[in-house]
Amino acid sequence: MNRIFVNEPERDFSNPKVKENMEKAIAAVELELGKDYPLVIGGEKIFTEKKTTSINPCKKDQVIGYASNASKELADKAIRVAYDTYEEWRLVPTRVKYDYIMRLIGVLQKRRYEIAAWMILETGKNFGEADGEICEAIDFFNAYAQGAVYLEEHPVPLVESTVENNRSEYRPIGVGLVIPPWNFPFSIMAGMVISAVVTGNTVCIKPASDAPITTCKFVEMCEEAGIPAGVINLIPGSGSEIGDFVVDHPLTRFINFTGSKAVGLRIAERAAKVNEGQKWIKRIIAEMGGKNAIVVDSSADLRWAAKQAAAAAFTFQGQKCSACSRAIVLSDVYDEFLTYFKEEAESYQQGAGKDNMDICAVINKASFDKIASMIEQGKSEGRLITGGTYDDSVGFYVKPTIIADVDPKTSVIANQEIFGPVVAVMKVDTFEDAIDLANATEYGLTGSVFSANRENIEYAKDNFFVGNLYINRKCTGAVVYNHPFGGYNMSGTTAKTGTVDYLYNFVQLKSISENIVY
Length: 518
Ligand code: NAP
Ligand code: MG
What we know:
Number of strands: 23
CATH architecture of the largest domain: 3-Layer(aba) Sandwich
Number of helices: 15
Bound molecules: NADP nicotinamide-adenine-dinucleotide phosphate, magnesium ion
């Protein structure tokens, strides 16, 4: 296609008019709360008795909506419908699929404030975080639609032959399960769907149980954009109830998963087993957790490092896979860095997403309890610098927490993913030690280095083992086509979202050779 990729600009909520539009959208969405949502199979909307209740984490007694759960029978039906639809969808020309995705972008642009409002209420995002997701989703849609065209136009080059007409073509692979996390309920989920669909596959989405309503809205928009029934099916339900069933299903060709290491590894293990009636080895894309570190050396701009570290650690309550949860600081600047880091953490105003506060509530009770227990553990493992308190009387609020002087080897908070606004700070003597320590985790998602020392920066480029390395900036906020996203080691299969590379996960190369001289 003759279009140039441009990142979607974020809305400026310091403009009173823009802020007012968002507030109006939230007020309008509040009138829609508490409704029942159907699951969707082949375009058919089915309401079931058993439902997933979605709540507002900032106001825990507020119900966002009830998503109809798929039983195993309905999940089986959805996979079979996706399988049948695949036979037609795989043959739809790429440019037609491209046009559906462009139309979807148009629908999303029209409903942009409204969709952001659903996310704000369902997952405790502030305005900027929610709008950022809309931008990322639009970027994913553009990137994958253009990428699908690119793949079609750039098959593997072959040698010329005078006796054969040889061709290579990327073809889709089949029915995919999309199993997204709740923390980017729109952009990650929608990116996982559209990448697979625009390359010719059909999908069943099993949304995260903490954010099913945002997914219902996305599926509604896909229908509005005219994407044919059966291409995108929606089967909400608890992962522990239907997860194994859909992963094991013999017609499931691939599983596109983003979430925790424990669930990712479980899926990978189960998917490796060939079940009755299955004709392929299932493909797994599993993007998982992190224990991301920032490294601050003696030459760093310490105020800047502290500001960026706080942004990476505390925005969206530390619930980003890329969030900073360890700070590794050279001993000669350790105390000064801690002073600034504390100031930054204490500058974050906490409250409800709908009030556009800097930081809001963590996703649910189980998460709140886990983070609280990690904080108590941390207090016994190190020196509490700030935070350390939490309150779930109205919503699941946890104060930004910094714990210093923790032992990198023995402390739990320096080694386990917390997925909340908690940072373990550690002191080291040399830059090499800092990088070794940064690497001393089973994960390898993101990392930042703050330094004015070129040698150290080069050393980090070669030796800091992460999928996304950032120098003198925060380790969160990857942008499509600027920072291909995906981690090393137990952080996942390095799927590298937001690029053409990502699309190779959903295609297989076919070689077609026609004898022209027989
Ligand atoms: P999670 O608990 O692993 O859940 C992820 C998804 O898996 C949900 O839809 C969940 O459904 C489903 N699931 C649970 N058990 C399953 C099973 N046995 N079979 C199939 N599916 C199952 O993760 P989360 O709490 O939603 O998200 C947080 C995690 O995601 C963190 O570890 C974070 O680092 C990671 N993450 C990684 C990336 C990345 O790009 N690397 C991006 C975002 C998040 P239910 O909700 O019904 O349990
Ligand atoms: Mg979960």
